[in-house]
Automatic annotation (TrEMBL):
Record protein name field: PH domain-containing protein
The organism's taxonomic lineage, starting at the top: Eukaryota, Metazoa, Chordata, Craniata, Vertebrata
UniProt cross-references to InterPro entries, sorted A to Z: PH-like_dom_sf (IPR011993), PH_domain (IPR001849)
Biased composition (Basic and acidic residues): 1-12
Domain PH span(s) in chain numbering: 35-107
Gene3D superfamilies for this protein: Pleckstrin-homology domain (PH domain)/Phosphotyrosine-binding domain (PTB)
Amino acid sequence: MREEDAERHGDSLPEQSELAVSSPVSVSRELPPRLCGYLNKLSGKGPLKGFKSRWFVFEPLHCHLFYFKGSSDAIPLGVIDIADSSFTYDLEAEEGQFEIHSGGRDYTLK
């Protein structure tokens, strides 16, 4: 029914603002908290090895750990497949330092 027809028959169509008020739709799905933060990652080769601060983001759907240069970067420097990884924590190493072994590579983080 068009608006002119509705007015002729005595019916009035609600205005758009009335629709919003009369039929509230509440969609309050809370997303789970995002697991992310800075870790120091060992990088470099030979005598140039050193720890660099990297922003890590865990993506639970595919079980990947992405790492970026900083928290505002959009393109990751790399990704670690956590689903098929093993972790080691050497008690004699520096406090908080651990290794992730994934896909034939070793990542040292602290």
